[in-house]
Amino acid sequence: MDGSPTHVSYERSKSASNIFEKKPFLIGVAGGTASGKSTVCRRIMEKLGQDEMDDTQRQVVCITQDSFYKELNSEDGLKARKGKYNFDHPDAMDFDLLLDTLQAILHGKKCQVPVYDYSTNSRLLVYFRILKGSCAPLYSRKKDEFITIHPADVVLLEGILVFYCKEIRDLFHMKLFVDTDSDTRLMRRVLRDVKERGRDLEHVLNQYLLFVKPSFENFCLPTKKFADVIIPRGADNSGKL
Ligand SMILES: Nc1ncnc2c1ncn2[C@@H]1O[C@H](COP(=O)(O)OP(=O)(O)O)[C@@H](O)[C@H]1O
Ligand SMILES: Nc1ccn([C@@H]2O[C@H](COP(=O)(O)O)[C@@H](O)[C@H]2O)c(=O)n1
């Protein structure tokens, strides 16, 4: 990471001195694809009664690393549409933007995080329609869609590679690794990607064999050793015998 400026935008949570700003407790949740990271985060939010709350009132917020995928050039975009782009390699991630965002969060700032769209392999865009004059044509304008992360007591960040970079890893106050067997993960991934991410079966299986599985073994699994807590079977694990 070169520490170069990125386009993360944030503002102070309080206009007065920030001496009394709360430093949130940052929890990283790693694990292979479809291991149940988001489900575990959702379960934590539910247990803490945070799921029904308004964004500005929440004391626990959850961010996904998928918001920090790099934007693709047209050549890589074409590869991605054919399942020939490696989204599981660290090079696919904008770790600089992620680091800047986490640092801002840890300073109690309100942050804007991009929203990712798996069907287009890019950040979600919102279209604005601008009416020029009374009978002039309508103009469309595109703009990145962001979600606002309000300052909170606890921030969860989930993703396959959240423990990969030391600079990012060292920011977590607690590190969880969701450990789910690979057959179960593949089965869930197929169902999810076809139902929710606009993929066909052949695409999902080719991508899995070509990139997802080898990258899990090379980049994600080796980060399990950094976890403070390993959660076998994800949200199925109630902690009871
Ligand atoms: N314990 C579970 N039992 C059954 N299905 C699950 C379980 N945990 C997650 N899933 C399903 O598996 C898919 C992937 O889960 P998700 O939590 O999104 O994984 P990840 O965030 O690790 O990719 C989702 O469709 C989810 O509903
Ligand atoms: N355009 C994209 C971006 C990511 N992926 C896959 O998503 C997986 C990470 O998300 P999980 O919820 O499964 O942790 C990762 O394995 C990428 O292969 C994608 O297919 N397309």
UniProtKB/TrEMBL annotation:
GO terms for molecular function: ATP binding; uridine kinase activity. Belongs to the uridine kinase family. This is uridine/cytidine kinase. Signal peptide: none annotated. InterPro entries: P-loop_NTPase (IPR027417), PRK/URK (IPR006083), Uridine_kinase-like (IPR000764). Residues 26-237 form the Phosphoribulokinase/uridine kinase domain. It catalyses: uridine + ATP = UMP + ADP + H(+); cytidine + ATP = CMP + ADP + H(+). Keywords: Kinase, Nucleotide-binding, Transferase. Pathway: Pyrimidine metabolism; UMP biosynthesis via salvage pathway; UMP from uridine: step 1/1. Its EC number is 2.7.1.48. Gene3D superfamilies: P-loop containing nucleotide triphosphate hydrolases (3.40.50.300). GO terms for biological process: CTP salvage; UMP salvage. It comes from Darwinula stevensoni.
